[in-house]
Structures are given as C-alpha cells and as structure tokens.
Amino acid sequence: MKRVAEYEFSIGYRASHWIRFFAIFILIISGLYLAYVFQAPVVSDEPVLFLHAKWRFVHIVAGFVMIAAIIFKTYLFFFDPLSKKELVSIKDALNPKIWIAQIKYYLFLGEHPHMKGVYNPLQFASYLMFYIVAFFIILTGLILYVHVYHEGLGGLLYPICRPFEVLMGGLANVRVIHHICMDIIIIFVVAHVYMAVFNAVKGKNGGMDAVISGYKFPEEH
C-alpha cells in the first residue's frame, strides 16, 4: 500500500512532550531520594553539605517545569489550530463502535479502526486519566512546597493551598496522595511506552517517529 505523510504533531506539542518526559524522569529519581534516602554525603564536621536540600531543590525545579509544560500543553489542546485533531478525538472516544474495533485490534482480532482524531479511545482515556492524576500531584506538590518556602511564591500560594490540605485530611495524607499519584504516573509511563512501541511495530505508520518529526505515514485510502 502507498503511504502518505501527514503532519500530525506541532513543534509545540513535541517540545512539551519531551519536556514532560525529562521532568517526570527527574521527579521520579529526586522524589525517591526525598522519600527513601539512598545517598549519603561525604563525612564532614562542617554543616555545609545540605545534600537533602539540594535534592529537594532539583525536585522543585523539575516540578515547576512540569507545571509549565502541562499548562502549555493544555493551552495547545484547546487553542492551537494544529492541535484540532486532538479535540476531534473526543468524538472518537464517545463512539462505542470504535472502542470495540480498537480492542479487537489490540487482541489481533481485527484491523485498526479509521478515526478522525489523533488518539484512539483507549489512548484518549489514558491521557485523560494522566492529566487528572497530574492535577492532583501538582496540587499536593504545591501544598508540600508552601510548607517549606513561606515567602514569595510560597507565601502567595499558602492561603490558596491550605483549604485543599484540610480537605485531604492534613499534611501526612497530602504526602501519601502525592506518592500514590507518582506511582500511577510511573505505571502510565511504562504502559505508554509499551503501547507506543506496539502501535509503531504493528501499524508500521511511523507512530513513534511522529513525536520527534511530527509526521505519521498512514496508508493512502
């Protein structure tokens, strides 16, 4: 079959994707250290090492980069002309026939359904779940942040975050929810990479290339 090149993902989409990828990677490593210290500083009698504070600084910087990337991606989803196909995916996600056909495709029982949007229903549902979890991990992260930095941005956000802290049952619960959200994101990342490879190999349409070059190569109909 002849294939055609379709420009599917804008440079803004691809940039936000890879920024989130590296931010999540750094957040996982630094978050694991903050939760379960796995590195000890060189022994010294001078109180100038501050290793935990350095890891926390890295975690906070990566967290705010993640927040910025998600806000930017949300803007693209709703307002970027090149991202209209993502909005169209909502219609595909509400179509039961496409759901059934997509599940058959993953079970090697049928062909990939023809869709108008960028994402199939399972992809759209998983991405929606990711952003819901991302909202909670950002919210809990900001609550933890304002309890360490009491001036500047921390002081500005404190009265906003405090009611949410109370709703979650206190700071200890906030920390637990933060960790659970990170566990869900780790599972999502593993599943996301697996499904991306699966679709790229089975579909042979450059599915993984698109997040780098922006182009997919579907069959010409």
What brief labels describe this structure?
single chain, 221 residues, mainly alpha, Fumarate Reductase Cytochrome B subunit, two-stranded antiparallel ribbon, 8 helices, electron transport
Largest sheet: 2 strands, antiparallel
Kindly identify the CATH topology. Fumarate Reductase Cytochrome B subunit
What's the total helix number? 8
Terminal Cα span: 9 Å
* CATH architecture descriptor name: Up-down Bundle
Tally of domains: 1
Q: Assign the structural class, choosing from mainly alpha, mainly beta, alpha/beta, alpha+beta, or little secondary structure.
A: mainly alpha
Mean pLDDT value: 86
CATH homologous superfamily assignment: Transmembrane di-heme cytochromes, Chain C
Tell me the total number of β-strands.
2
Radius of gyration: 21 Å
Subcellular location: Cell membrane
Pfam families: Ni_hydr_CYTB
Domain Cytochrome b561 bacterial/Ni-hydrogenase: 9-214
Keywords: Cell membrane, Electron transport, Heme, Iron, Membrane, Metal-binding, Transmembrane, Transmembrane helix, Transport
